[in-house]
Amino acid sequence: MDSLKNLEQLIVKNRSYRRFYESERISEENLKSWVNLARQSASARNMQTLKYMLLTQESDCDKMFPLLSWAGYLEDWQGAEKGERPSAYIVVLNDNSLSEQYFSDDGIASQSILLGATSSGYGGCIVVAVKHKPLREWLKIPQEYKIIQVIALGKPKEQVVLEALPQNGDYKYWRDSEGVHHVPKRSLDEIILNNVNSR
Amino acid sequence: MDSLKNLEQLIVKNRSYRRFYESERISEENLKSWVNLARQSASARNMQTLKYMLLTQESDCDKMFPLLSWAGYLEDWQGAEKGERPSAYIVVLNDNSLSEQYFSDDGIASQSILLGATSSGYGGCIVVAVKHKPLREWLKIPQEYKIIQVIALGKPKEQVVLEALPQNGDYKYWRDSEGVHHVPKRSLDEIILNNVNSR
Fold this sequence. Notes:
The structure is a homodimer.
Chain A: H1 4-13, H2 28-39, E1 50-55, H3 58-64, E2 88-95, H4 105-119, E3 123-127, H5 132-139, E4 145-154, E5 160-164, E6 174-175, E7 181-185, H6 188-191, E8 192-195
Parallel strand pairs in A: 5-7
Antiparallel strand pairs in A: 1-2, 2-4, 3-4, 6-7
Helix pairs in contact in A: 2-4
């Protein structure tokens, strides 16, 4: 990584993608290389309580897909059709036997994984709305592992653009008639509370 | 960002630094450019509930330092001496008036900020052990803002190395007689639960 500008390009490219070229499969080695980024990232008290399950086979992906809810704001859309679905998943778990408290490790790890996927030419989406019970039963996830979220991954097949929040302040993402996904982002002025230095 | 390899180098370089060249100040523009990375990162339901306060002035940094607890595992060390302390801080808040639930946004944002700092030649440390009451009173943080964590930033003045967990499984970081900070990391085999594909 050479510069802030390169990093910013990567972060902007790393959008939440929900439609993919499903036939472009992702290897387990790819997933491991991205989890390895999470592994080398910061961890609160260095406890490293997060654990991961990797799914790449089409039959497993077919089972995972209906356990996830997609894009709550797109009311007319129930998720990608077959052919445009994710081609791999990473289940992010917390090993409660080590500690139930993982502070912000989940986001740190997920951001590292998704930046890795993006830098490898893929993309993905963090899904929190997961049907825990059937997922736990299917993957035989022991009770001491808390299901935090699932990262869906694939070769992106949609355009996602960032834009300013509209006048009415509506932050909901939306999809236009061309299928472009629009994501309104608050301004820097809105999220930086005040200039402490000029008090 | 060109490749996974470059990203991995950045992620490995982005360690939790706790000693800095305090006289190397960080500009507010620097901090804003890093918060701008967080702004453009993923947010659950795109609600973007996180807010930030920026501190760069030496007098403010002097007030912030005693409100933070440093490196719990280094029992003989109460934090950096004057001259080696952070030269800027970002207070990460959640705007509960938007939503009390921010999922993993805190970690996503903090990772983006710290990768930004690292790519700009700086470094930092996420501090969760913060004296909330005096911080809230001093910075006049309204009650509807939850204090999540503080990111301490500066020009790193210490060497931090990642290494494998020792045989006894002790994950605590430690500092050797040369002042090098050692961080044991679990192996990829330990954190990837099982090969779902080979069940």
